[in-house]
Design goal:
The structure is a homotrimer of 159-residue chains. By secondary structure, chain A is of the alpha+beta class.
């Protein structure tokens, strides 16, 4: 194969890798809801890097470390959501990949069951910082803020 | 072309096919809402395999066969939704493809118009079982359960 | 490289380009919410072609031209949303690409903060007409109608 043809193949592989990154990151973000809404600490932790963190709007301090993030499903507030009926739903993220790092900006909503309908109990902005690891993309840091008029929440929607 | 180069091309084609499957399945799932919210029985039926089924949370028995699934848009309850103003909105599915079969897990929400706002009338978990047919991916089976605290609903969010 | 191999590479590149179009259009649509919910007129305008338009349901006339579309974030109604806390969230679009033109059909929802929850203040159907420009895909025309039972809204969900 000529050098020109080799380079053409190299380019194809690079473009393909970019699309695969995009797909993998989308799946990662989409997997958060099902993990916490089934109360699965292990599946939730598995989305994060070992020392990754999750800074949740409205809580005093961030969860630090995959295990701590996973254990958020065991706290009484979350267990109450599960018993009542809950859905943590992400919007399609805007993704920017830069080598082995990426960011994803999206909205999340928490729907809670209430009699004959569901209440929209939280609407938040999210900024995910992601890392490519030996096992695929993982969450190094997620920040989440309630969209209640606070500038801090709007800041997370900026690229 | 050398055998090594041929194999490189084979791999590229395989990876591309996986991304195309992902895109096609996403489009299929995203097409459900527009089909039922325009009251289009034919477009709804066309998403399913001929003998596919849809097991809807809160209903006595599943719809069996593409035609029966399509005809759900003609039932009085659904016609009432259309007259009132409705939106059946899917979240981004978590997709797993295994050859000519695939599963997709996601949330769905039904918004109904009510005066100056919309009520979140249903929030459900969904498990789609999909098949690759000669005409592309189709729904072989969809299960849907209300996220009202019932374990059966949470089960549909597991991979 | 043989002609057959060259054609194989051509096909690969074509299929890859289709997936890249799909990704780019999804990112474009997903970028609308973050642009308007941060009150960023420039970022909003940048999504449209110079002479593109946005026909918003419930308003007297469409915004015409990227600059006018971007300036919608400065109108008092929108500034009130920002102060109160708002989220303009798109569903995954159903995308059809035809050369340098494309359409995308999706739902949008406007969530507004209200004390201890968020109100679903708007649920709309959307039809985006997109154009491939020298700088990538841009919005040539977007139509949006409230899903309040009106046939005009249902029409925007049809392919």
């Amino acid at each position: 194969m000529s050098t020109a043809d080799q380079e053409r193949l190299d380019r194809l592989e690079r473009r393909l890798r970019e699309l695969e990154d995009d797909r993998e990151i989308r799946q990662l973000v989409a997997s958060y809801g099902p993990a916490v809404d089934t109360g699965d600490a292990e599946a939730t932790a598995a989305l994060w890097t070992t020392d990754g963190s999750y800074d949740v709007g409205g809580m005093e301090k961030p969860f630090v470390g995959a295990e701590a993030v996973g254990n958020l499903v065991t706290i009484p507030g979350h267990q109450g959501y599960l018993a009542r009926g809950c859905a943590h739903v992400m919007s399609a993220p805007v993704i920017h990949v830069d080598g082995d790092r990426a960011t994803a900006n999206c909205y999340s909503r928490l729907y809670l069951h209430d009699d004959d309908h569901w209440v929209v109990a939280r609407v938040s902005s999210n900024r995910w910082e992601l890392e490519r690891t030996a096992d695929g993309w993982r969450v190094a840091r997620r920040e989440n803020r309630l969209l209640d008029g606070d500038e801090a929440a709007r800041a997370l929607l900026r690229p």
